[in-house]
Amino acid sequence: MTAPVKGPAAYFPSIEKKYGRPIADWQDLIRSSPLTRHMELVNWLKTEHGLGHGHANALVAYTLAEDSGT
């Protein structure tokens, strides 16, 4: 039996379903952006790519944590 997914990754299935792109694509976009601060990236995803705040926040939080090794 697997433990339920917690934290930002819990949003991933609904993000993929709603926006039709795999999480890896969103992470590539975040990593290729010249922006580096959390809220700058969240606002960019919201305004430029139409994501809701919770989804954008989850993607940014997960990607930045993964990149920092935490």
Provide a descriptive summary of the structure in words.
- The chain is mostly helical and 70 residues long.
- The chain has one domain (10-68).
- It is built from four helices and no strands.
- The protein has helices at residues 12-19, 23-32, 38-49, 53-68.
- It starts with 11 loop residues before the first helix and ends with a helix.
Write the layout of secondary structure elements.
Layout: H1 12-19, H2 23-32, H3 38-49, H4 53-68
Strand runs, count: 0
Structural class: mainly alpha
Number of domains: 1
Multimer state: single chain
- Provide the helix percentage: 55-70%
Task: Determine the number of helices (DSSP H or I, runs of at least 4 residues).
Answer: 4
- Strand percentage lies at under 5%
Tertiary shape = globular
- Low-pLDDT runs: none
Order of helices and strands: HHHH
Largest sheet: none
Radius of gyration equals: 12 Å
Mean pLDDT: 93
Termini distance? 25 Å
Protein name: DUF4287 domain-containing protein
InterPro entries: DUF4287 (IPR025629)
Pfam family, one: DUF4287
Organism: Streptomyces tuirus
